[in-house]
Design brief:
The complex is a heterodimer of chains A (199) and B (201).
Chain A: H1 10-54, E1 67-69, E2 78-85, E3 88-101, E4 104-113, E5 118-125, H2 139-142, H3 172-194
Antiparallel strand pairs in A: 1-2, 2-3, 3-4, 4-5
Chain B: H1 3-15, H2 28-33, H3 38-62, H4 71-93, H5 95-101, H6 112-122, H7 127-157, E1 159-160, E2 163-164, H8 179-200
Helix pairs in contact in B: 1-7, 3-4, 3-6, 3-7, 4-5, 4-6, 6-7
The chains are: A alpha+beta (199), B mainly alpha (201).
Chain lengths: 199, 201
């Protein structure tokens, strides 16, 4: 049953490893080529889905009309996805980020109506404590933002003198979340001022 | 022993008598790290099962061609290649699971269960026995991780496979989805498993 083991000479050791690593490299290159398309498609699908959950009704392609604004804040540039219904501007989905989460970066996508009030918020990236900070994805926490206008709704935890009901007593996730929403609001305001004024 | 009964005992050994998680306590890093829900445990189990099956088969195929002194690096390259394949496939087709498992996918390479089976079994047995051994061990690992994940999810989140059975307002035993809960749940499950299997034997 036991196969005859090969003697270990320098030549056959080098040769064996050379062939194995070569074969592994070639097959990985092949699989990478195969999965490149589906990988990009999966990423795009997630983005489209997140944009759809936070925006009011629209009929354009916000993801392909993205506007990037350098924020100089955590994460990369802020992305703004404008939404139009029958040619009329109805709002935009804006990314916001904060590095003050319990385990670092939190990235959100905040959807705004044209009048500046918030439609919905989706969490794009987070590493919070399961069962505590991750509840920010829950309906109970998110619903307090719906329909609120950030100019009247102070984006700070109640404990800090704002209007956001905290998730837990420590308010770490809540603070980071509020900061990320605040960042998105500022980016949205800046973006709206840059739009050509209609009527 | 006939061939069929030999395969059957090889297969069952991985699930019961030498269950990698509850009896051998192998591969503890993913076992403790990703089992915060039944879905994560199942996903990690299936990914490991695939890598184990492929690596055992290939190692068994090439065993007579590999010089003894470089066999460990050769096995590791084979294992790492299959792990990377799994990672690319998950990212392309099951992005949700890819995100949940995160760093634990590349870490399948250093799961000692896989290298252990390559060295202790596949490098000494035929391709068919090695594949059967991998299926048994892989299924044993998958079942253990799913049960552990399910237990932690029920106690810690009040849901199973993402379906909640308590309201959002309920406070569950968060301890069980945090790292210490993994150790506690594993210890109790291993004790119960060994008690039950000893009774059968």
């Amino acid at each position: 049953m036991t196969a005859q083991k090969k003697d270990s000479t320098l030549i056959n050791m080098v040769l064996a490893l050379f062939i194995i690593t070569g074969a592994a490299g070639l097959s990985l290159g092949y699989v990478n080529e195969l999965t490149r398309g589906p990988k990009a498609a999966a990423k795009l699908a997630r983005k489209v889905q997140a944009v759809e959950t936070v925006l009011p009704e629209f009929d354009n392609q916000p993801v392909s009309e993205v506007v990037r604004v350098m924020a100089g804040e955590p994460g990369d540039s802020t992305e703004i996805y404008p939404a139009y219904l029958q040619g009329e501007f109805v709002g935009a989905a804006v990314t916001g980020a904060s590095e003050k989460g319990y385990n670092g970066l939190i990235r959100l996508l905040v959807g705004f109506h044209a009048d500046g009030s918030m439609e919905n918020i989706a969490v794009l990236e987070q590493k919070e404590t399961p069962g505590l900070g991750t509840k920010m994805k829950g309906e109970r926490f998110l619903r307090q933002f719906r329909g609120k206008d950030p100019s009247e709704f102070e984006l700070k935890a109640v404990k800090d003198g704002g209007d956001v009901d905290a998730l837990t007593g420590a308010t770490i996730t809540t603070r980071a979340f509020s900061e990320a929403v605040q960042q998105a609001c500022e980016a949205y305001r800046g973006y709206k001022e840059s739009l050509p004024t209609e009527n | 022993m006939s061939n069929a009964s030999k395969y059957k005992s090889t297969f069952l050994r991985g699930i019961i008598r030498e269950n990698p998680v509850f009896v051998m306590l192998l591969g503890m890093c993913p076992t403790l790290g990703v089992t915060s829900s039944a879905f994560n445990g199942l996903g990690m189990g299936v990914a490991t099962l695939f890598v184990l099956l492929m690596s055992n088969t290939v190692v068994s195929l090439v065993k007579s061609q590999i010089p003894a002194k470089v066999r460990i690096p050769a096995f590791i390259v084979i294992i790492a290649a299959f792990v990377t394949v799994v990672e690319m496939i998950l990212e392309a087709y099951i992005p949700l699971l890819y995100e949940q498992l995160g760093i634990f996918i590349p870490l399948i390479v250093v799961n000692c269960l896989i290298l252990g089976r390559a060295e202790a079994f596949a490098s000494k047995h035929s391709v068919a026995s090695s594949a059967v051994d991998a299926l048994g061990m892989g299924l044993g690992f998958t079942m253990a991780l799913t049960v552990l994940g399910g237990t932690r999810e029920i106690l810690g989140s009040g849901s199973l496979f993402g379906f909640p059975f308590v309201g959002e307002e309920a406070n569950m035993l968060i301890l069980f989805i945090l790292p210490p809960g993994a150790f506690i749940a594993l210890a109790y499950l291993a004790a119960v498993f060994n008690k039950l299997t000893r009774k059968i034997a």
